[in-house]
């Protein structure tokens, strides 16, 4: 087994997260997953919720498929099959995905519009991954249903409520009054999977829905203010970050697909505003009201996805933003330590069908924070809503998607020009990237095919005067001050690398400090390059960043990197 630098490895993190994906299904409920966990409870508890159906199944099936591609492993095929079987069973005769009724708590069967996005996401990934005609059949019916139930007026299409029933919309008056509560939640977040499905299959209904929903969001809804800020009105979920950022990701993709530069500018303006509300390492507020103290990993993944979309559209400065988020808050938001979690020895305190206290920590090991603080896996503040949930199924699935988006974007390009956008370890058919950061400013590039040009993004903090590029045997080696060292896009340019060649790029890694403000509270942050190596004040329940170690040279480990024979992307 080859030896590689012991630094953050996104595919390994995806494998670790699959423990939580596999641990959430409840055998007493036929495999329906628990939605949330309270890890501060003594003993800790897993709970069901009204998101258990299409939303959780869609997110978790998506995670299974993405992790399988990243790792090349079939370890979770049975888990994946269970989510797929149950998810397809939620479809009604009308083509929509329905929540099952729980009359004991007043939950009727309904097709929740927020759920449809997760369902569409996972089915699209299923088709893109496996080419399964069953997935295509389901999505075609689903897209047709989403188009059919939309209220269609001359200049706008919209959904007038959050729930659709077998008898139609709950309130005909909502249609007559042109009500469109929270269009970002119900329509805007559908754009991203609808567009990807269109790109995979040519489905024209999916593309048409993207156009109408983009028009609704940008020109009619008022979800975003003129300066790009989120509308904080209660009717718009108090500027809920996850739904706004997820909508921006779809708008940015649709703009790139259609060549709409004005829409790209709209997405950038709002994205830049959102970055101003987040910390530089990736913590985001939940909303602009009572949830502003709580960070959802879902929101961070939306920031990562939107940043990647904008960077691939030519705004390459966002690669640095994405890398900071991947290295820091996405990695730190993953539960890898159970020393602070107490589980029950038996099921005597359980409420079958609702809660369990047994092996809770072990079941959610690898999960991403559901509601976290800037310096702690747990959000337990006096303000806002106080302590709620520490794990949510949606964030478990989203966390894997964030890892996939990052992993999938480390290396891009073709035989003529291959670009290394993120300085993280990854193997591809054309090149293997071995990152020694944050310990050393060093990246090794192992070339597997003859290439016209290999480009490497160098972080802005590394400067250029002390950059060194060493090619095998010293032939063609150069530094960052030489003419021809840089490509027009600002990347370092390595001309005509040959198969079997090894290129080593070194540069300084400065340390710095910053003051980050999160929901009005200040945190002193120590950085080494793009990595946070300490935050003050420290967290209390499960502190973040306090255990990070930096060595003079990167530690080594044995690990076989996955190299997919066939790449596919989102």
Helix percent band: 25-40%
Main sheet summary:
6 strands, antiparallel
Could you name the ranges where pLDDT drops below 50 across 5 or more consecutive residues? none
Spatial sequence of strands, sheet with the most strands: 12-13-14-19-16-17
Describe this structure in words.
With 570 residues, this protein is of the alpha+beta class. It has a six-stranded antiparallel sheet with strand order 12-13-14-19-16-17, with no helix packed on it. It has a four-stranded antiparallel sheet with strand order 8-3-2-9. A four-stranded mixed sheet has the order 10-11-15-18. It is globular, with a radius of gyration of 23 Å. The protein contains 15 helices and 23 strands. The chain has helices at residues 10-23, 54-71, 77-89, 113-130, 133-149, 172-176, 183-186, 191-201, 204-221, 241-258, 261-277, 297-312, 318-332, 360-364, 393-409; strands spanning 3-5, 36-38, 45-47, 111-112, 151-152, 157-158, 163-164, 355-356, 391-392, 411-413, 417-420, 426-427, 431-435, 442-447, 453-456, 468-471, 478-479, 492-495, 502-506, 511-518, 521-528, 531-536, 556-558. The model has no long low-confidence stretch (mean pLDDT 96).
Give the secondary structure arrangement, pairings included:
Blueprint (H helix, E strand, L loop, with lengths): L2 E3 L4 H14 L12 E3 L6 E3 L6 H18 L5 H13 L21 E2 H18 L2 H17 L1 E2 L4 E2 L4 E2 L7 H5 L6 H4 L4 H11 L2 H18 L19 H18 L2 H17 L19 H16 L5 H15 L22 E2 L3 H5 L26 E2 H17 L1 E3 L3 E4 L5 E2 L3 E5 L6 E6 L5 E4 L11 E4 L6 E2 L12 E4 L6 E5 L4 E8 L2 E8 L2 E6 L19 E3 L12
Parallel strand pairs: 11-15
Antiparallel strand pairs: 1-23, 2-3, 2-9, 3-8, 4-7, 5-6, 10-11, 12-13, 13-14, 14-19, 15-18, 16-17, 16-19, 20-21, 21-22
Helix pairs in contact: 1-2, 1-15, 2-3, 2-4, 2-15, 4-5, 4-8, 8-9, 8-10, 10-11, 10-12, 11-12, 12-13, 12-15, 13-15
């Amino acid at each position: 087994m080859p030896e590689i630098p012991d630094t953050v490895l996104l595919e390994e993190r995806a494998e670790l997260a699959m423990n939580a994906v596999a641990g959430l299904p409840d055998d007493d409920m036929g495999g329906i997953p628990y939605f949330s966990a309270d890890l501060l409870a003594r003993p800790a508890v897993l709970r069901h919720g009204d998101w258990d159906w299409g939303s959780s199944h869609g997110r978790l099936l998506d995670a299974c498929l993405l992790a399988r591609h990243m790792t090349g492993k079939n370890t979770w095929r049975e888990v994946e099959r269970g989510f797929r079987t149950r998810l397809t069973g939620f479809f009604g005769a009308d083509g929509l995905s329905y929540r099952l009724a729980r009359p004991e708590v007043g939950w009727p069967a309904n097709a929740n519009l927020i759920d449809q996005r997760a369902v569409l996401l996972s089915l699209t990934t299923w088709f893109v991954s496996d080419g399964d005609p069953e997935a295509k059949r389901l999505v075609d019916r689903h897209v047709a249903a989403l188009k059919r139930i939309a209220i269609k007026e001359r200049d706008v299409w919209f959904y007038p409520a959050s729930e659709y029933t077998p008898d139609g919309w709950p309130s005909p008056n909502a249609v007559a009054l042109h009500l469109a509560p929270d269009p970002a939640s119900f329509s805007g977040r559908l754009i991203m999977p609808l567009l990807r499905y269109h790109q995979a299959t040519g489905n024209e209904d999916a593309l048409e829905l993207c156009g109408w929903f983009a028009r609704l969001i940008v020109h009619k809804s008022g979800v975003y203010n003129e300066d790009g800020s989120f509308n904080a009105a209660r009717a718009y979920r108090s500027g809920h970050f996850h739904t706004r950022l997820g909508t921006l990701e779809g708008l940015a993709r649709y703009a790139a697909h259609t060549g709409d530069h004005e829409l790209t500018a709209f997405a950038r303006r709002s994205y830049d505003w959102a970055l101003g509300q987040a910390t530089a390492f990736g913590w985001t507020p939940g909303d602009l009201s009572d949830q502003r103290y709580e960070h959802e990993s879902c929101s961070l993944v939306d920031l990562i996805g939107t940043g990647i979309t904008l960077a691939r559209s030519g705004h390459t400065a966002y690669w640095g933003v994405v890398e900071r988020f991947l290295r820091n808050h996405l990695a730190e938001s993953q539960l890898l330590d159970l020393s602070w979690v107490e589980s029950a020895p038996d099921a005597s305190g359980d409420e079958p069908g609702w809660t369990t206290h047994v092996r809770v920590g072990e079941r959610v090991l690898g999960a991403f924070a559901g509601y976290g603080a800037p310096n702690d896996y747990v959000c337990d503040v006096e303000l806002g809503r106080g302590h709620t949930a520490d794990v949510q199924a949606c964030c478990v699935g989203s966390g894997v998607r964030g890892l996939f988006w990052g992993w999938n974007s480390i290396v891009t390009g073709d035989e003529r020009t291959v670009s290394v956008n993120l300085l993280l370890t990854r193997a591809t058919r054309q090149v293997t990237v071995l990152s020694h950061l944050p310990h050393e400013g060093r990246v090794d590039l192992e070339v597997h095919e003859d290439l016209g040009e290999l480009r490497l993004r160098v972080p802005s903090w590394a400067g250029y005067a002390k950059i060194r590029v060493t090619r095998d045997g010293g032939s063609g080696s150069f530094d960052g001050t030489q003419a021809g060292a840089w490509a027009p896009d600002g990347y370092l340019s390595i001309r005509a690398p040959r198969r079997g060649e090894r290129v080593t790029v070194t540069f300084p890694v400065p340390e710095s400090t910053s003051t980050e403000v999160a929901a009005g509270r200040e945190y002193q942050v120590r950085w080494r390059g793009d990595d946070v190596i300490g935050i003050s004040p420290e967290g209390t329940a499960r502190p973040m960043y306090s255990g990070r170690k930096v060595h003079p040279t990167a530690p080594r480990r044995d690990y076989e990197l996955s190299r997919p024979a066939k790449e596919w992307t989102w």
